UniProtKB/TrEMBL annotation:
Protein name in the entry: Lysin
SUPFAM superfamilies assigned: (Trans)glycosidases
Cleaved signal peptide residues: none
UniProt xrefs under InterPro entries: GH (IPR017853), Glyco_hydro_25 (IPR002053), Glyco_hydro_fam25_subgr (IPR018077)
Entries under PROSITE patterns matching the protein: GLYCOSYL_HYDROL_F25_2
Keywords: Glycosidase, Hydrolase
SMART domains for this protein: Glyco_25 (SM00641)
């Protein structure tokens, strides 16, 4: 596994021989990695297993958890979330209750316990999370270890029985080994005891509204209003869709196109980030 951030070469996201890519998503409550989705999508296209992480800034732990969730909720179920607890740029370093508050808040929102990244010498600061969260431990034989050969060294993970991820280099590249299978990683992404995510009291419903949508990019026309549903066609940029109803789902704005025999086609007008993908008239 390699973890990548804005300062990493973009090629790290598709590195040959690496099975897992962990992408930095957010930090504190006011930073989003501008290359997060670019690296994430490149890694996904390359067939990598996926993860996203938040770097603690040390502000209010509940607000940081909310900020992380808000910006990565579209990846949940596919990517393993993680929280990065380090001393650099962290005003709450040394607070042994901070990460506990963060992971509790994140779990309430997502139903998934995040992994916890921490240096081996500071395990005591996150020990109260060991029963719920997997461990991503950083421990190097030396800062000159620049090899994928796993070092032969004693690794203390207590109170965890073992690690989920071990980062064993941190100089020219953050090299890691994951202590799980492909199936195990996917299980971590989905959560083993998932709670329902809080939903709006107002259930999403179709609203009758006629209009025209001009595609600003190539988009798929789907058989049903689900992003993974089969495509009827892939429409090129500039195509014009006449729609008769709209649906604002939890992530995307859908338009309904009447077709022959009383059937419909469905297209995304706004993506999960709220970006309009064309012109509505």
């Amino acid at each position: 596994m390699v973890d990548v951030y804005s300062g990493s070469p973009r090629s790290y996201a598709t590195l040959s021989g690496v099975d897992v890519i962990m992408v930095k998503a957010t930090q504190g409550t006011n930073y989003i990695n501008p290359f997060c989705d670019q690296d994430y999508q490149a890694a996904k296209k390359a067939g990598k297993l996926l993860g996203v992480y938040h770097y603690i800034g040390g502000g209010n732990p509940e607000k940081e958890a909310q900020y992380f969730y808000k910006n990565i909720k579209g990846y949940l179920g596919e990517a393993v979330p993680a929280v990065d607890w380090e001393s650099y740029q962290n005003s709450s370093w040394g607070d042994s209750n901070y990460v506990r508050k963060f992971v509790d808040a994140f779990y309430k929102l997502s139903g998934v316990w995040p992994l916890i990244y921490v240096q081996a010498s500071s395990l005591n600061q996150v020990a109260n999370c060991s029963k719920d969260c997997g461990l991503w431990i950083a421990s190097y034989p030396s800062m000159n270890w620049k090899s994928w050969s796993i070092p032969n060294m004693k690794l203390n993970t207590s109170p965890w029985s073992t690690y989920t991820i071990w980062q064993f280099t941190g100089d020219n590249m953050d090299r890691n080994v994951a202590n799980t299978t492909k199936e195990g990683w996917k299980k971590l992404a989905k959560g083993s005891n998932k709670k329902p995510v809080a939903k709006s009291k107002n259930k999403a419903a179709w609203k009758k509204k006629q209009g025209t949508f001009i595609l600003g990019q190539a988009l798929k026309l789907h058989e049903s209003p689900h992003i993974d549903s089969p495509a009827i066609a892939k429409l090129p940029k500039g195509s014009i869709i006449q729609y008769d109803a709209t649906l604002q789902g939890p992530l995307r704005l859908w338009l309904r196109q009447p077709r022959s025999n009383g059937k419909y086609g469905y297209i995304v007008a706004k993506d999960k980030y709220g970006k309009l993908l064309g012109k509505l008239k």
